[in-house]
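During the second half of the funding period, the structural biology subgroup turned its attention to how the target accommodates small molecules. The most pressing case was L-tryptophanamide, which had performed well in the primary screen but for which no bound structure existed. We therefore specified the complex as follows and requested a full 3D prediction, including the ligand pose.
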Amino acid sequence: MESTTVTTAPEAVKPERKKVILSGIQPTGVFTLGNYIGAVRNWGQMQEDYQCAYFIADLHSLTVRQEPAQLRKQTLEAFALLLACGIDPQKSLCFIQSHVPAHAELGWILDCYTQFGELSRMTQFKDKSARHADNVNAGLFTYPSLMAGDILLYQADFVPVGADQKQHLEFTRDLATRFNNLYGQTFRIPEPYIPKTGARVMSLQDPTKKMSKSDTNANGFITVLDDPKVIVNKFKRAITDSEAQVCYREGKDGINNLMSIYSAITGRTFEQIEQEFAGQGYGAFKLAVGEAVAEELRPVREEFARLMKDKGYLEATYRAGAEQATAISQRTITKVKKKVGLLAP
Ligand code: ATP
Ligand code: LTN
């Protein structure tokens, strides 16, 4: 709490503001091992040292056609998965994006400060518009300014994401700087927070493509809810090369990917992994990776099953989160509206 009396007594010194961490994930399916290692797993580890806010980006998921009943189901499941992956709603703010009106409001305002040219350069837009050529909608195009709004509303210091989101964060920083230059200090400029290992987990079937929950080939990705046997089998079938030597080298995309996954799970370095499997074929290595992943995900699977039996708790939790997020986001959106010249209601 801020004190209004001016004093130099050390105990009255205003406590330092805890740095704010914010991130989101779309409810487009069960989280993959890529989402887990590249993003969600790290979110839980930051809760002690930072003020964290994590949300389900349901508005973003509308940029690809969704079946309404399925989207509702996936949104609740994604919220439960956040908690199952270790996010504690007592410590972190957890909510669903569409429950907090300021996201759409700031998204629209920021659209008006975003240039067509900069959105055209976004690689995610280029990829997704090629994959969904029959539905290249305006939302897919302006996706980054909605995302910038998510981040800037909460004055986030750090945004933990996988490597694929780096370009969107650079865009957010440019946009925030532009707005601040025009209207004076309004937004904090956020920093990306990208993990050293596992920032880009690749598909098990095509290790030149990122592992994605909306991949049509289910053998390409592992979900955090896959059965241990399924996990081991998917790793057994993973595409590798014909060299039969476990080592990290350019051109060995499949093995490099498996080594990165194993390293991210066990904490071992590539050198240690090379020694561990020296003289052994890929069979033994793939089995070890599969078993390590299955074991790592066991508590997530168990906690998810438990949470899904308690819908009352999930609903109460996302409602409380929305209420808090609405209050926090009001501070920024009110300031922004005033700065750009919208008449106060
Ligand atoms: P979709 O398939 O619907 O595009 P996605 O699997 O790419 O979804 P998002 O919801 O877009 O998942 O991303 C959630 C978080 O997971 C982001 O921080 C993103 O950077 C991270 N992420 C996604 N895929 C990977 C991956 N293969 N490796 C590492 N991190 C990833
Ligand atoms: N675009 C992100 C999801 C997302 C997000 C955000 C991440 C939406 N808004 C704000 C960080 C901060 C993705 O992972 N594809």
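Two results from this model are relevant to the next phase. The chain has 13 helices and five strands. Residues 25-26, 28, 32, 34-35, 38-39, 161-162, 164-165, 199-201, 210-214 surround adenosine-5'-triphosphate (ligand 1) (CB under 6 Å).
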